[in-house]
Amino acid sequence: MLRMGIRAVEQQSSSRLQLNWFDISGLPLASTPAIIHVVAANPKWQTAQLEVVAPEDAAACRVYTAAQRGQVWLDEYSLRKLAGTCPPELMAVPNPVLIDGDHHRTVVVWDSHRASQSQIYLSIDDRQEEFFAEGESGAQPLENISPGSRYQFRLYESHDHRLPIQLLEVHGKKRAPQLEVNWPTPTGSGSPTLTWRTSNGLPARIYISKDGGAEMLFAEAPVGTETLQSIEPESNYEFRLYTEKSKTRPAEIVTIPAVRK
Fold first, then answer.
1. Are residues 151 and 187 in the same domain?
2. Which domain covers residue 141, as residue numbers?
3. Closest-CA residue to 255 (of 234, 240, 244)
4. Under a CB-based contact definition with an 8 Å cutoff, are residues 236 and 254 in contact?
5. Residue 120 half-sphere exposure, CB side, CA atoms within 13 Å?
6. In a domain, 164, yes or no
């Protein structure tokens, strides 16, 4: 695998890479054409990598680079033999993390597909990275995910921290308030129900307005389900969910329209 850092002055820039193979005597392998690859670049440093299969008689490789479009910088070259043919895997479940009460955790799962012990470091909101986990593969939970923060996990091969072999970003977001009407199945019987849930577990107030009239308090709780037994088909009903954050403006509205005969 050929891996390098790449950066450009402008967006939509690119660099041209060429790999030439040589035998044990240092002579070019005439029967093997050069490998040419174009790598995209942008103003932020990023890791580019290219997996190639070496010819059977190859003993060495020479890499040539040139800017194909724009002004490009390349640094931190490395060319190494992979232990396997699978790319490294790094994921988090769930991602994004929905913040709901005390539940704000994710589990980071990785498999480096390398023979050496890999390391994972974590940077929160672009701060200094810190050690998170170690091993060829594994799973590690992360607690206390905060909404609005950015968690970047960097998978390194062994103790080489010059360039990560895989990156992962995890975000936390608040669960939006929910308010919905659930109807019985066409073949079933019974009345519809109103279900609601707030995003932070704090109290909510549900008001009902019939045919555009004044609001009346219907329920008050952070989460709940109520049966709507007195729904008149000829009337229009609007249910409004208020929270501490929404104050006098409903956070959610659901309507049951009138059925005109």
1. no
2. 89-174
3. 240
4. no
5. 29
6. yes
In 126-190, DSSP assigns E strands to 130-134, 137-142, 150-156, 166-174, 178-182
Residues 6+ apart with CB under 8 A from 214: none
Q: How many CB atoms lie within 10 A of CB 57?
A: 12
pTM value is: 0.48
Q: Is there a single domain that holds both residue 55 and residue 94? A: no
Distance CA(127)–CA(130), nearest Å, equals: 9
- Give the C-alpha distances (Å, rounded to integers) separating 196 from 190, 215, 247: 19, 18, 17
Rounding to the nearest 10 degrees, give the CA dihedral for residues 151, 156, 161, 163.
-80
Cα distance between residue 201 and residue 133, in whole Å: 32
CA distance 151 to 136: 21
What tokens were used for 150? 């950015």
The answer to whether residue 261 sits within a structural domain is no
SS3 content of the chain, % helix, strand, coil (to 5): 0, 50, 50
CATH code at 158? 2.60.40.10
- Are both 101 and 157 inside the same structural domain? yes
- Each residue's pLDDT tens digit in the chain (261 positions)? 788 889 999 998 999 999 998 888 888 887 778 888 899 999 988 888 888 878 878 888 888 898 999 999 988 778 777 655 578 899 999 998 987 665 688 999 998 887 667 899 999 999 999 999 998 889 999 998 988 899 999 999 877 788 899 999 999 887 778 888 888 876 656 788 999 988 767 788 999 999 999 999 999 998 899 998 888 888 999 999 998 777 788 888 889 887 654
